[in-house]
Amino acid sequence: MSLDIQAIRADFPILHQQVHGQPLAYLDNAATTQKPQCVIEAVRQYYERDNANVHRGVHALSERATAKYEGAREKVRAFINAASLSEIVFVRGATEAINLVAQSYGRSNLKAGDEILITEMEHHSNIVPWQLLCEQTGAKLKVVPINDDGEISLEDVESRLSKRTKLVAVVHLSNALGTINPVREIIDLAHGQDIPVLLDGAQATAHLAVDVQALDVDFYVMSAHKMLGPTGIGALYAKQELLEAMPPYQGGGDMISMVSFEKSQFAELPYRFEAGTPNIAGVIGFGAAIDYLQKLGLENVAEYEDGLLRYATERAQVFPGLRLIGTARRKASILSFVLEGIHPHDIGTILDRQGVAVRTGHHCAMPVMEHFQVPATVRVSFSVYNTMDEADRLFAALEKVREMFA
Fold first, then answer.
1. Which of 24, 100, 212, 220 places its Cα 20 to 30 Å from the Cα of 129?
2. Kind and range of the H or E element at 100?
Protein backbone atom coordinates (compact mmCIF):
# COMPACT_ATOMS: atom_id res chain seq x y z
CA MET A 1 0.00 0.00 0.00
CA SER A 2 1.39 3.40 -0.97
CA LEU A 3 0.81 6.24 1.46
CA ASP A 4 -0.99 9.47 0.53
CA ILE A 5 1.57 11.85 2.03
CA GLN A 6 -0.42 15.01 1.34
CA ALA A 7 -3.43 13.52 3.14
CA ILE A 8 -1.14 12.56 6.02
CA ARG A 9 0.30 16.06 6.16
CA ALA A 10 -3.22 17.46 6.38
CA ASP A 11 -3.64 15.54 9.64
CA PHE A 12 -0.86 17.58 11.32
CA PRO A 13 -2.02 21.16 11.96
CA ILE A 14 1.39 22.44 13.12
CA LEU A 15 2.99 21.78 9.73
CA HIS A 16 0.85 24.41 7.99
CA GLN A 17 2.61 27.54 9.19
CA GLN A 18 5.40 29.88 8.19
CA VAL A 19 8.62 30.43 10.16
CA HIS A 20 10.55 33.64 9.44
CA GLY A 21 8.31 34.11 6.39
CA GLN A 22 9.10 30.64 5.00
CA PRO A 23 6.94 27.48 4.99
CA LEU A 24 7.97 25.22 7.84
CA ALA A 25 10.03 22.15 6.96
CA TYR A 26 10.16 20.24 10.26
CA LEU A 27 13.14 17.87 10.14
CA ASP A 28 13.74 17.43 13.89
CA ASN A 29 11.63 14.32 14.46
CA ALA A 30 14.27 12.39 16.43
CA ALA A 31 13.93 15.05 19.14
CA THR A 32 10.13 14.92 19.09
CA THR A 33 7.52 14.23 16.45
CA GLN A 34 4.52 16.37 15.66
CA LYS A 35 1.04 15.28 16.66
CA PRO A 36 -1.86 14.42 14.34
CA GLN A 37 -5.23 16.02 14.97
CA CYS A 38 -6.64 12.74 16.31
CA VAL A 39 -4.07 12.75 19.15
CA ILE A 40 -4.77 16.39 19.99
CA GLU A 41 -8.50 15.64 19.90
CA ALA A 42 -8.17 12.60 22.17
CA VAL A 43 -6.37 14.68 24.82
CA ARG A 44 -8.86 17.54 24.45
CA GLN A 45 -11.86 15.22 24.77
CA TYR A 46 -10.49 13.72 27.97
CA TYR A 47 -10.14 17.13 29.61
CA GLU A 48 -13.45 18.43 28.26
CA ARG A 49 -15.59 15.35 28.90
CA ASP A 50 -13.93 12.66 31.02
CA ASN A 51 -11.51 14.40 33.38
CA ALA A 52 -11.39 12.29 36.52
CA ASN A 53 -8.88 10.08 38.29
CA VAL A 54 -8.62 6.46 37.18
CA HIS A 55 -9.10 3.21 39.12
CA ARG A 56 -10.59 4.91 42.17
CA GLY A 57 -14.02 6.22 41.30
CA VAL A 58 -17.42 4.58 40.86
CA HIS A 59 -18.90 7.61 39.12
CA ALA A 60 -19.34 7.85 35.35
CA LEU A 61 -16.41 10.17 34.61
CA SER A 62 -13.93 7.99 36.46
CA GLU A 63 -15.25 4.86 34.80
CA ARG A 64 -14.94 6.43 31.34
CA ALA A 65 -11.42 7.71 32.07
CA THR A 66 -10.37 4.30 33.40
CA ALA A 67 -11.76 2.52 30.35
CA LYS A 68 -9.79 4.79 28.01
CA TYR A 69 -6.64 4.54 30.14
CA GLU A 70 -6.69 0.76 30.28
CA GLY A 71 -7.76 0.62 26.64
CA ALA A 72 -4.54 2.43 25.77
CA ARG A 73 -2.56 -0.19 27.71
CA GLU A 74 -4.06 -2.86 25.47
CA LYS A 75 -3.11 -0.79 22.41
CA VAL A 76 0.52 -0.64 23.58
CA ARG A 77 0.49 -4.38 24.30
CA ALA A 78 -0.83 -5.21 20.84
CA PHE A 79 1.48 -2.70 19.13
CA ILE A 80 4.61 -4.51 20.36
CA ASN A 81 2.96 -7.94 20.70
CA ALA A 82 3.54 -8.37 24.41
CA ALA A 83 2.05 -11.55 25.86
CA SER A 84 0.10 -9.88 28.67
CA LEU A 85 -1.24 -6.54 29.84
CA SER A 86 0.68 -7.17 33.07
CA GLU A 87 3.90 -6.63 31.10
CA ILE A 88 3.09 -3.00 30.14
CA VAL A 89 4.02 -0.34 32.71
CA PHE A 90 3.25 3.31 31.98
CA VAL A 91 6.13 5.70 32.77
CA ARG A 92 7.12 9.24 31.83
CA GLY A 93 9.17 7.98 28.89
CA ALA A 94 12.07 5.77 27.88
CA THR A 95 14.39 7.54 30.34
CA GLU A 96 12.22 6.75 33.35
CA ALA A 97 11.74 3.19 32.09
CA ILE A 98 15.51 2.61 32.03
CA ASN A 99 15.89 4.15 35.48
CA LEU A 100 13.10 1.90 36.75
CA VAL A 101 14.92 -1.20 35.49
CA ALA A 102 18.24 0.06 36.89
CA GLN A 103 16.90 0.84 40.35
CA SER A 104 14.48 -2.06 40.70
CA TYR A 105 15.93 -4.99 38.76
CA GLY A 106 19.53 -3.73 38.86
CA ARG A 107 19.83 -3.03 42.58
CA SER A 108 18.22 -6.37 43.35
CA ASN A 109 20.44 -8.45 41.09
CA LEU A 110 23.85 -6.77 40.72
CA LYS A 111 26.74 -6.72 43.16
CA ALA A 112 30.39 -5.65 43.22
CA GLY A 113 32.38 -7.11 40.33
CA ASP A 114 29.34 -7.70 38.10
CA GLU A 115 29.25 -6.05 34.67
CA ILE A 116 26.71 -4.22 32.52
CA LEU A 117 27.39 -4.20 28.78
CA ILE A 118 26.36 -1.22 26.64
CA THR A 119 27.62 0.25 23.35
CA GLU A 120 29.50 3.37 22.37
CA MET A 121 26.48 4.72 20.47
CA GLU A 122 24.08 4.92 23.43
CA HIS A 123 21.98 7.94 24.31
CA HIS A 124 22.90 9.40 27.70
CA SER A 125 19.69 7.93 29.12
CA ASN A 126 21.11 4.46 28.46
CA ILE A 127 24.48 5.35 30.03
CA VAL A 128 23.93 7.50 33.12
CA PRO A 129 21.39 5.25 34.92
CA TRP A 130 23.85 2.35 34.64
CA GLN A 131 26.70 4.52 35.90
CA LEU A 132 24.59 5.43 38.93
CA LEU A 133 23.81 1.75 39.47
CA CYS A 134 27.50 0.89 39.25
CA GLU A 135 28.27 3.50 41.91
CA GLN A 136 25.57 2.03 44.16
CA THR A 137 26.51 -1.64 43.72
CA GLY A 138 30.20 -1.74 42.78
CA ALA A 139 29.36 -3.18 39.36
CA LYS A 140 31.32 -2.09 36.27
CA LEU A 141 30.24 -0.69 32.92
CA LYS A 142 31.68 -2.34 29.81
CA VAL A 143 31.40 -0.73 26.37
CA VAL A 144 31.21 -2.28 22.90
CA PRO A 145 32.97 0.08 20.45
CA ILE A 146 31.57 1.30 17.14
CA ASN A 147 33.44 1.46 13.84
CA ASP A 148 33.73 4.51 11.62
CA ASP A 149 30.48 3.62 9.84
CA GLY A 150 28.67 3.79 13.17
CA GLU A 151 28.16 0.03 13.49
CA ILE A 152 28.90 -2.50 16.20
CA SER A 153 30.42 -5.91 15.57
CA LEU A 154 28.73 -9.04 16.91
CA GLU A 155 32.22 -10.43 17.51
CA ASP A 156 32.94 -7.45 19.77
CA VAL A 157 29.69 -8.08 21.64
CA GLU A 158 30.43 -11.77 22.10
CA SER A 159 34.01 -11.15 23.23
CA ARG A 160 32.82 -8.83 26.01
CA LEU A 161 30.19 -11.19 27.41
CA SER A 162 31.34 -13.23 30.39
CA LYS A 163 30.14 -14.84 33.58
CA ARG A 164 30.38 -11.38 35.17
CA THR A 165 27.90 -9.85 32.68
CA LYS A 166 24.53 -9.48 34.37
CA LEU A 167 22.74 -7.22 31.88
CA VAL A 168 23.09 -6.04 28.28
CA ALA A 169 21.51 -2.65 27.42
CA VAL A 170 21.55 -1.64 23.75
CA VAL A 171 19.84 0.97 21.59
CA HIS A 172 17.61 -0.47 18.87
CA LEU A 173 17.89 2.55 16.53
CA SER A 174 20.58 5.15 17.25
CA ASN A 175 19.31 8.68 17.74
CA ALA A 176 22.64 10.21 16.69
CA LEU A 177 23.55 7.98 13.74
CA GLY A 178 20.39 6.27 12.53
CA THR A 179 22.05 2.85 12.85
CA ILE A 180 19.68 -0.10 13.24
CA ASN A 181 21.47 -2.57 15.49
CA PRO A 182 21.35 -6.36 15.02
CA VAL A 183 19.31 -6.70 18.18
CA ARG A 184 17.95 -10.20 17.60
CA GLU A 185 21.49 -11.54 17.22
CA ILE A 186 22.66 -9.63 20.31
CA ILE A 187 19.78 -11.08 22.32
CA ASP A 188 20.65 -14.59 21.14
CA LEU A 189 24.28 -14.12 22.18
CA ALA A 190 23.30 -12.81 25.61
CA HIS A 191 20.62 -15.43 26.22
CA GLY A 192 23.15 -18.11 25.33
CA GLN A 193 24.79 -17.14 28.62
CA ASP A 194 21.52 -16.50 30.51
CA ILE A 195 22.04 -12.72 30.43
CA PRO A 196 18.92 -10.52 30.18
CA VAL A 197 18.74 -7.76 27.56
CA LEU A 198 17.18 -4.29 27.62
CA LEU A 199 16.52 -2.53 24.32
CA ASP A 200 16.16 1.25 24.11
CA GLY A 201 13.38 1.57 21.55
CA ALA A 202 12.77 5.31 21.88
CA GLN A 203 13.65 5.95 18.24
CA ALA A 204 12.64 2.58 16.80
CA THR A 205 8.93 2.36 17.55
CA ALA A 206 7.91 5.13 15.12
CA HIS A 207 9.92 3.66 12.25
CA LEU A 208 10.12 -0.13 12.68
CA ALA A 209 7.63 -2.87 13.48
CA VAL A 210 8.58 -4.25 16.91
CA ASP A 211 7.56 -7.71 18.17
CA VAL A 212 8.94 -8.25 21.66
CA GLN A 213 7.99 -11.94 21.69
CA ALA A 214 9.72 -12.61 18.38
CA LEU A 215 12.79 -10.74 19.64
CA ASP A 216 12.57 -12.57 22.98
CA VAL A 217 13.77 -9.33 24.59
CA ASP A 218 13.56 -9.04 28.39
CA PHE A 219 13.00 -5.27 28.67
CA TYR A 220 11.90 -2.81 25.97
CA VAL A 221 11.42 0.94 26.55
CA MET A 222 9.61 3.56 24.48
CA SER A 223 8.52 7.21 24.51
CA ALA A 224 5.19 8.34 23.06
CA HIS A 225 6.46 11.72 21.89
CA LYS A 226 8.90 10.06 19.47
CA MET A 227 5.96 8.25 17.83
CA LEU A 228 3.41 11.03 17.18
CA GLY A 229 2.07 11.01 20.76
CA PRO A 230 2.18 13.42 23.72
CA THR A 231 5.26 14.30 25.72
CA GLY A 232 5.77 13.02 29.24
CA ILE A 233 4.44 9.51 28.67
CA GLY A 234 5.94 6.21 27.59
CA ALA A 235 5.99 2.55 28.47
CA LEU A 236 8.22 -0.16 29.84
CA TYR A 237 7.72 -3.68 28.55
CA ALA A 238 9.19 -6.40 30.74
CA LYS A 239 8.66 -10.14 30.83
CA GLN A 240 6.12 -10.96 33.51
CA GLU A 241 8.41 -13.28 35.48
CA LEU A 242 10.98 -10.48 35.75
CA LEU A 243 8.44 -7.88 36.89
CA GLU A 244 7.02 -10.27 39.47
CA ALA A 245 10.45 -10.57 41.10
CA MET A 246 11.21 -6.83 41.03
CA PRO A 247 10.51 -4.56 44.02
CA PRO A 248 8.52 -1.35 43.48
CA TYR A 249 10.45 1.59 42.07
CA GLN A 250 8.38 4.26 43.85
CA GLY A 251 5.83 4.21 46.65
CA GLY A 252 2.50 5.98 46.90
CA GLY A 253 -1.12 5.71 45.95
CA ASP A 254 -2.50 3.24 43.42
CA MET A 255 0.49 0.88 43.72
CA ILE A 256 -0.73 -0.74 46.93
CA SER A 257 -3.47 -3.14 47.95
CA MET A 258 -3.21 -2.46 51.69
CA VAL A 259 -1.31 0.03 53.87
CA SER A 260 -0.83 0.02 57.64
CA PHE A 261 1.87 1.63 59.77
CA GLU A 262 3.42 -1.79 60.22
CA LYS A 263 3.50 -2.94 56.59
CA SER A 264 2.20 -2.31 53.10
CA GLN A 265 1.11 -4.86 50.54
CA PHE A 266 1.67 -4.00 46.91
CA ALA A 267 -0.81 -4.14 44.06
CA GLU A 268 -0.74 -6.70 41.30
CA LEU A 269 1.18 -6.12 38.08
CA PRO A 270 1.55 -3.70 36.42
CA TYR A 271 0.08 -1.29 38.98
CA ARG A 272 2.76 -1.80 41.64
CA PHE A 273 5.08 0.18 39.34
CA GLU A 274 2.62 3.05 38.70
CA ALA A 275 2.61 5.08 41.90
CA GLY A 276 0.41 8.16 42.15
CA THR A 277 -1.99 9.81 39.75
CA PRO A 278 -0.73 8.96 36.27
CA ASN A 279 -0.54 11.10 33.16
CA ILE A 280 -4.05 10.03 32.13
CA ALA A 281 -4.40 12.44 29.22
CA GLY A 282 -0.95 11.44 27.97
CA VAL A 283 -1.81 7.75 28.08
CA ILE A 284 -5.02 8.35 26.15
CA GLY A 285 -3.10 10.42 23.58
CA PHE A 286 -0.50 7.64 23.39
CA GLY A 287 -3.25 5.20 22.50
CA ALA A 288 -4.55 7.54 19.79
CA ALA A 289 -1.05 7.84 18.31
CA ILE A 290 -0.77 4.05 18.16
CA ASP A 291 -4.13 3.87 16.41
CA TYR A 292 -2.85 6.36 13.83
CA LEU A 293 0.40 4.45 13.22
CA GLN A 294 -1.50 1.17 12.98
CA LYS A 295 -3.80 2.69 10.38
CA LEU A 296 -0.80 3.76 8.28
CA GLY A 297 1.00 0.45 8.81
CA LEU A 298 4.58 0.40 10.13
CA GLU A 299 5.77 -1.51 7.07
CA ASN A 300 4.40 1.26 4.82
CA VAL A 301 5.94 3.95 7.03
CA ALA A 302 9.33 2.21 6.99
CA GLU A 303 9.28 1.81 3.21
CA TYR A 304 8.38 5.46 2.62
CA GLU A 305 10.90 6.83 5.10
CA ASP A 306 13.63 4.58 3.71
CA GLY A 307 13.11 6.11 0.26
CA LEU A 308 13.24 9.59 1.74
CA LEU A 309 16.46 8.82 3.63
CA ARG A 310 18.11 7.29 0.55
CA TYR A 311 17.21 10.36 -1.50
CA ALA A 312 18.63 12.75 1.09
CA THR A 313 21.73 10.59 1.54
CA GLU A 314 22.46 10.62 -2.20
CA ARG A 315 22.21 14.40 -2.22
CA ALA A 316 24.43 14.65 0.85
CA GLN A 317 27.12 12.42 -0.67
CA VAL A 318 27.73 14.90 -3.52
CA PHE A 319 27.31 18.11 -1.51
CA PRO A 320 30.65 19.99 -1.38
CA GLY A 321 32.41 19.87 1.99
CA LEU A 322 29.79 17.66 3.63
CA ARG A 323 30.91 14.71 5.77
CA LEU A 324 28.30 12.18 6.79
CA ILE A 325 28.51 10.95 10.39
CA GLY A 326 27.04 7.45 10.47
CA THR A 327 27.02 5.42 7.27
CA ALA A 328 25.83 2.04 8.55
CA ARG A 329 24.46 -0.44 6.07
CA ARG A 330 21.18 -0.64 8.04
CA LYS A 331 19.83 2.80 8.88
CA ALA A 332 16.53 4.56 9.38
CA SER A 333 15.21 8.11 9.44
CA ILE A 334 18.38 9.99 10.49
CA LEU A 335 21.03 11.88 8.52
CA SER A 336 23.84 13.38 10.60
CA PHE A 337 26.65 15.45 9.10
CA VAL A 338 29.15 18.26 9.44
CA LEU A 339 30.17 20.91 6.91
CA GLU A 340 33.85 21.68 6.58
CA GLY A 341 34.86 24.86 8.43
CA ILE A 342 31.34 25.71 9.67
CA HIS A 343 30.07 25.02 13.19
CA PRO A 344 26.81 23.03 13.29
CA HIS A 345 25.13 25.65 15.50
CA ASP A 346 25.75 28.30 12.81
CA ILE A 347 24.30 25.96 10.21
CA GLY A 348 21.21 25.31 12.31
CA THR A 349 20.64 29.03 12.88
CA ILE A 350 20.84 29.85 9.17
CA LEU A 351 18.61 26.91 8.24
CA ASP A 352 16.02 28.14 10.73
CA ARG A 353 15.86 31.49 8.92
CA GLN A 354 14.96 29.49 5.81
CA GLY A 355 12.15 27.72 7.66
CA VAL A 356 14.07 24.45 7.96
CA ALA A 357 14.08 23.01 11.50
CA VAL A 358 16.95 20.63 12.30
CA ARG A 359 18.79 19.66 15.48
CA THR A 360 22.39 20.63 16.14
CA GLY A 361 24.62 19.59 19.03
CA HIS A 362 25.76 16.34 20.60
CA HIS A 363 22.23 14.86 20.68
CA CYS A 364 22.75 13.45 24.20
CA ALA A 365 25.37 11.13 22.70
CA MET A 366 28.70 12.72 23.65
CA PRO A 367 30.70 9.47 23.30
CA VAL A 368 29.59 9.32 19.65
CA MET A 369 30.91 12.82 19.07
CA GLU A 370 34.19 11.85 20.73
CA HIS A 371 34.51 8.80 18.50
CA PHE A 372 34.10 10.87 15.33
CA GLN A 373 36.19 13.74 16.76
CA VAL A 374 33.55 16.39 16.16
CA PRO A 375 32.09 18.83 18.70
CA ALA A 376 28.58 18.41 17.31
CA THR A 377 26.65 17.45 14.18
CA VAL A 378 23.70 18.68 12.20
CA ARG A 379 21.01 16.04 12.52
CA VAL A 380 18.20 15.79 10.00
CA SER A 381 15.52 13.32 11.07
CA PHE A 382 12.53 12.33 8.97
CA SER A 383 9.00 11.24 9.78
CA VAL A 384 6.20 9.93 7.62
CA TYR A 385 4.84 13.43 6.94
CA ASN A 386 8.10 14.74 5.43
CA THR A 387 8.62 15.03 1.68
CA MET A 388 11.38 15.04 -0.93
CA ASP A 389 10.53 18.70 -1.53
CA GLU A 390 11.51 19.39 2.09
CA ALA A 391 14.75 17.49 1.54
CA ASP A 392 15.40 19.71 -1.48
CA ARG A 393 14.70 22.79 0.64
CA LEU A 394 17.26 21.52 3.16
CA PHE A 395 20.01 21.35 0.57
CA ALA A 396 19.00 24.70 -0.96
CA ALA A 397 19.36 26.21 2.51
CA LEU A 398 22.74 24.49 2.94
CA GLU A 399 23.86 26.19 -0.29
CA LYS A 400 23.05 29.53 1.33
CA VAL A 401 25.15 28.48 4.33
CA ARG A 402 28.11 27.74 2.04
CA GLU A 403 27.69 31.08 0.27
CA MET A 404 27.67 32.97 3.56
CA PHE A 405 30.84 31.27 4.77
CA ALA A 406 32.66 31.20 1.43
1. 212
2. helix 94-100
